[in-house]
Design goal:
40% helix, 623 residues, seven-stranded mixed β-sheet, 15% strand, five-stranded parallel β-sheet, single chain, 25 helices
């Protein structure tokens, strides 16, 4: 196997052309086999095999810096830098990350996980290089989907001022997770017809050269100008107009052509963008046919492409999708918004039924939030479905454009809490903290699938800003017997006893119920409360519970700093309720990748750890 010859960075340079062709095939087969067992990002990685190989043949690692936007397409990069053995524990706890990690390898220049960041980071590297008098290459790879993000345009605007080399590789596969939308997508669609521009250029050159005596001189003079022939005969070249040299498009699966254009790019003394056309999922038919399905996949059967262990229960996302679609059938003011995540957020079904009321704004969470605010101000009922981790990007717009005006925008906060294998950049463990700081914001979270359905209905009709927070995975089907009507700002008391009151947030219901049962087994009296509303806090219930309870235990899958538990603790202290409060949650740290249940044990969100802490606290209180 040629792949066995790659033991460390730069080993690929020892291979001949035939070996490179074989290596590309072996890498694809290796990725399919490994990801079918571990799960991971398949389609995006299959699409950049030759592109990554060409970059490694062009660059010298780790001296040169390669920055991957988002980073989920860095698997081939990891293989070519000697991390082949790590794929057996890809995205498992203690194993190799599915994203670039500086602490994992010196060849990973920048930690990434969110989109549209690579050009900004690359510019920082270039500035540092110039200030330190260094001369290495800096390359940022950004996808056409990520290019829809406003941050990318801010960085391109800044890059146009450079006076030294900086290579931006535009990996164009016409996909982010969902199919790309908007003006940038249409613009790139035009550029993808490379032969049209090439034919025009060759035709113009040929015609000019036929002019007696002056022909060659005219062509050479045009080529010396800053923009060259392409600027004269292909008007509206966006990147060239910004002062960034544009090279391409080039076939992203032809190593020879890629090497030629990358060597040309390295000679440019300012910012240069190399437009590379790739096919997402290349080399594996199921991924080519359905790249969105294989963007981030669970373990699957290679022969069929089907999941090895398909879920038989509805997820919270599916419940949200079904209920929202049902509501929209009866209320034509309901509109849905996604930031390039129609499938992941469950809005694909809504889009099929109500295409005129569905808006995919591309990878642009900031714009999506203010767009929702405008819809609400205009009399509609906007629902913006977004992953918790990506909602962070729209904090200012939530505060300034939605909540300041107290507009009725529903934020469906999907993938809240620990999400597992994608790791630190994707764990949704901060939303309760940052949303709770915003005036006029209401935050609710369901305990099970039935309360999820009720909360979707409540939130859509709510007249003010509201965030509905729910996790990834199957919806909890316990506690069905408890389904009291949702009343604004009121918690739900499930079991009312004395001494210890366990108050949980949302999908911590199952853990909280287990904790109560274990406490009861050992003779402790324990009330169980479903918070329902993280904001506003049900202070009236806290005051009632304080009369016959000496210990409040809060459980949330969120960082403790600024979370629900701290709000409870602060009120108990301020109101002098005389109750000890124990907050159970995630400490002030980023949570690594791994199985969710294992991660919960690691952070102390498992039954044994919680019961031990509660008993210790209670015995201390009782002296």
């Amino acid at each position: 196997m040629v792949l066995e010859m790659i033991r460390k960075e730069n080993d690929i340079r020892k291979l001949n052309e035939e070996q490179l062709r074989v290596l590309a095939d072996e890498i694809r087969q290796f990725l399919i086999e490994k990801i079918s067992a571990t799960g991971g990002h398949l389609a995006s990685n299959l699409g950049v095999v030759e592109l990554t190989m060409a970059l490694h043949l062009t660059l010298d690692f780790p001296q040169d810096k390669l920055i991957w936007d988002v980073g989920h397409q860095s698997y081939t990069h990891k293989l070519l830098t000697g991390r082949k053995e790590g794929f057996d524990k890809l995205r498992k706890y203690g194993g190799m990350s599915g994203f670039p990690k500086r602490k994992e390898s010196d060849c990973d220049a920048f930690d990434t996980g969110h989109s549209s960041t690579s050009v900004s980071a690359g510019l920082g590297y270039v500035a540092a290089r110039e200030l330190l008098g260094q001369n290495h290459s800096v390359v940022s790879v950004i996808g056409d989907g990520s290019l829809t993000g406003g941050m990318a345009f801010e960085a391109l605007n800044n890059a146009s001022r450079l006076k030294s080399n900086f290579i931006i590789v535009l990996n164009d596969n016409n996909m982010s997770i969902s199919e790309n939308v908007g003006g940038m997508s249409k613009y790139l669609n035009g550029l993808r017809t490379a032969h049209a521009y090439t034919d025009i250029k060759r035709g113009v050159e040929g015609t000019l050269k036929k002019i007696p005596k002056k022909g060659d001189q005219i062509v050479n003079q045009i080529k010396k100008t800053k923009s060259g022939i392409k600027q004269l005969f292909v008007p509206g070249m966006l990147f060239e107009d910004m002062g960034i040299t544009y090279l391409g498009p080039v076939d992203g699966h032809d190593i020879r052509k890629l090497l030629r254009v990358f060597h040309e790019a390295k000679r440019v003394d300012h910012a240069v963008l190399v437009h590379v056309i790739t096919k997402k999922g290349k080399g594996y038919a199921p991924a080519e046919e359905n790249p969105a399905r294989f963007h981030g996949t669970e373990p699957f059967d290679i022969a069929t492409g089907e999941p090895k262990a398909p879920s038989t229960r509805d997820s919270y996302t599916q419940v949200f999708s079904k209920v929202l679609t049902d509501i929209a059938r009866k209320d034509d003011k309901v509109v849905a918004i996604t930031a390039a995540m129609a499938d992941g957020t469950g809005l694909s079904s809504f889009a099929r039924y109500f295409p005129n009321r569905f808006f995919d704004v591309g990878i642009a969470e900031e714009h999506a939030m203010t767009f929702a605010a405008g819809l609400a101000a205009g009399g509609m009922k906007p629902v913006f479905a977004v992953y918790s981790s990506f909602l962070q990007r729209a904090y200012d717009q939530t505060l300034h454009d939605v909540c300041l005006q107290n507009l009725p925008v529903m934020i469906a906060v999907d993938r809240a809490g620990l999400v597992g294998s994608d790791g630190e950049t994707h764990q949704g463990v901060f939303d309760l903290s940052y949303l709770s700081t915003i005036p006029n914001m209401t935050i609710i979270s369901p305990k099970n699938r039935w309360e999820m359905a009720d909360m979707v209905r409540f939130a859509v009709d709510f007249q003010y800003p509201i965030a509905l927070r729910y996790p990834r995975g199957s919806a909890y089907e316990g506690m069905r017997e408890f389904r009291a009507p949702i009343e604004y700002g009121k918690s739900e008391v499930l079991y009312e006893e004395e001494d210890i009151a366990v108050i949980f947030v949302g999908h911590m219901a199952e853990l909280a119920d287990q904790v109560r049962k274990e406490l009861k087994k050992t003779g402790y009296s324990c009330s169980l409360v479903n918070a329902r509303f993280v904001k506003p806090l049900d202070t009236g219930l806290l005051e009632e519970l304080a009369k016959d309870h000496s210990l409040f235990v809060t459980i949330e899958e969120n960082v403790l700093t600024g979370g629900f538990g701290e709000q409870v603790m602060e009120y108990v202290s301020r109101a002098s309720l005389g109750v000890h409060v124990r907050n159970i949650g995630i400490t002030d740290d980023y949570v690594e990748h791994g199985n969710v249940e294992l991660l919960r044990k690691e952070v102390g969100l498992d039954c044994d750890a919680v019961v031990k802490q509660v008993v210790t606290d209670y015995l201390m209180i009782k002296g």
